[in-house]
Amino acid sequence: MRYDDDAQLDASEVTDTRGQGGSGSGFGGLGGGGGGGLLPLLIGLLFRGRSGKVSWVLIVVVVVGFLAVTFLGGGGGQGSSIAGAFGEPGGPAVAGTSELAGECRTGADANTNPDCAIVADINSIQAYWAGGGYAQIASRVRGAQPRYQNVDTVFFSGRVNTRCGSADSSSGPFYCPADDLVYIDLTFYDQLRQQFGAQGGPLANAYVLAHEYGHHVQDQLGTLGTTESASARQGASSAAVRVELQADCYAGVWMNNATRPQGGRPAFITEITQADLDTAVDAATRIGDDYIQGQLGGGTVDPDSFTHGTSAQRKKWLTTGFTTGDPARCDTFRTNDLG
Q1: pLDDT exceeds 60 at position 272
Q2: Continuous H helices in 111-231
Q3: 201, 121 in Cβ contact below 8 A?
Q4: Angstrom distances, CA of residue 16 to CA of 148, 156, 180, 220
């Protein structure tokens, strides 16, 4: 994977709060529930308003352990998670002094600086959706927002406060619809390799963010509100699984289109090889529910507790997106064959 040396990066799409204080237990502070001392991570949070209906959903890309779902009730009651619950909702992350704008100016910087590569990925992902990708599907969905709205990614370290609740590094990357922000502690990429055994690499890293931006697309389309009933929140064919697999497919669609000009602008990325795609698929398979439960957790695979889909399903839908390059082919809600 290579970035266009002459591409002009826009670091304003990143809010960098690293080094602004705050701390969290991270992976090292969590005790072992899932067997073998493995560290369970948060799967997702469904928040209920006073009406009892789901008002917004926090989607997290990756989990370890069997099942860790936290609910914050409208009356202030808070459930608990073996991963450590998100705290009470607060304000979104506040921007600190960032050196990114000075360091990340061009694609040449992205080819040598990992932080700048993430900036380039975000620019590319949003250029695709704003440049016509979103319009391909929004016109077919009743009630969808008419245009794609760019949103920032927040780099944080240790702990961050959001309107979806406070989170630490163990939560993994996530999208908070209440803030319209994507959040990531960049040390997650090390954890993906070291704890999940993923190969890693630039496209694997980009896949993680593209998945989260897929959830932002779903939020604008109105498909994040499909997990209202208890039965929709988990299970092999649940709405929760379908939401996650669709976000994987959307990530693959972006990969297919990443080397093409978008909205009259040159592409940020000049090359994605088969080897690059293999690393992204590898990352997706490492975060399948069956792989996590059976291989990392050392436990029994329980399809009734699935929330993200199996490794084979995640591979299928990421590959479907990449092969077709068409977001309309990512309708995981109208198929009986999830893979």
Answers
A1: yes
A2: 114-128, 134-138, 188-194, 202-221
A3: no
A4: 23, 7, 16, 24
* Angle, vertex CA 114, rays to CA 14 and CA 30, nearest 5: 80
pLDDT digit string, tens, across residues 135-182: 999 999 999 999 999 999 999 998 889 998 888 887 789 999 999 999
Structure tokens at 201: 């690499």
Specify which residues 161 forms β-bridges with: 166
pTM recorded for the entire structure: 0.81
Q: Using an 8 Å Cβ cutoff, are 257 and 128 in contact?
A: yes
Q: Residue 276: what are its φ and ψ, rounded to 5°? A: -60, -50
Neighbours of 336 (CB within 10 A): 5
| Cα-only R_g, the chain | 18
Q: Compute CA distances 187 → 73, 150, 326, whole Å.
A: 31, 24, 32
Nearest partner of 293 among 110, 43, 108, 113, judged by Cα: 43
